[in-house]
Amino acid sequence: MPKAKPLTPAIIAEAALRIGDRDGAKAMSMRRIAGELGCDPMALYRHFPDRQALLDAVADLAMADVRDPDPGANWDHRLHALVTGIRAAALRHPGIAPHVAARPPLAEQGQRLGAAMMTALTQAGLSPADAIRTSQTLVAYAASALAMAVQGGTRDERWHQVSDTLSSLPDAPPGDGLPATGSDEQFEFGLRLLLLGIRHVAAADAGA
């Protein structure tokens, strides 16, 4: 067994992230993480109450890759950068990406990104109540888009089934224009619709 290292929550999370990057989500067991660190699995519980809490920390660590948006950019450009950055950062760490989708991070990095999102939404002209609801919607979209990207992203057998079904509907355009589920194309189109909707709601709030 490798020589034990002094343990901190950060060192444990970094080791778990390495394992996930290398071997996938199922490999991030307490036993595997302890083996990576050269310690007894029970030592991890001195820093995290359970595996879910540890994975929460790993998910937050993965979000450190997301850069703060340019404060001089328009609000919609900042929101686009944030949401696309969150998805891209999670996909760079496939072992933790499903956990990020299921439980968006709430620790240091999650709070940093959440604050940047709220600032952009406020500067868009949304009322405080609408800014809160919109941030929840954006997080939900980012999480669902990430979950679809983890599971799909290509024109597989299911895509062909859906495409053929759409093509058979009355007055429907050819289904071959359907983006693959979880693809960049699908994600970008959906995010553009959301940003247009935010602009509409902000205009309505301003006229209220």
UniProtKB/TrEMBL annotation:
Single annotated GO MF: DNA-binding transcription factor activity
DNA-binding stretch(es), residue numbering of this chain: 29-48
Secreted recorded as keyword: no
Keyword Repressor carried by entry: yes
One BP term from GO: negative regulation of DNA-templated transcription
Domain (HTH tetR-type): residue spans on this chain: 6-66
Alphabetical keyword list: DNA-binding, Repressor, Transcription, Transcription regulation
Pfam family, one: TetR_N
UniProt xrefs under Gene3D superfamilies: Tetracycline Repressor, domain 2
PANTHER family found in the cross-reference section: HTH-TYPE TRANSCRIPTIONAL REGULATOR RUTR, TRANSCRIPTIONAL REGULATORY PROTEIN
Protein name: AcrR family transcriptional regulator
Taxonomic placement: Bacteria, Bacillati, Actinomycetota, Actinomycetes, Pseudonocardiales
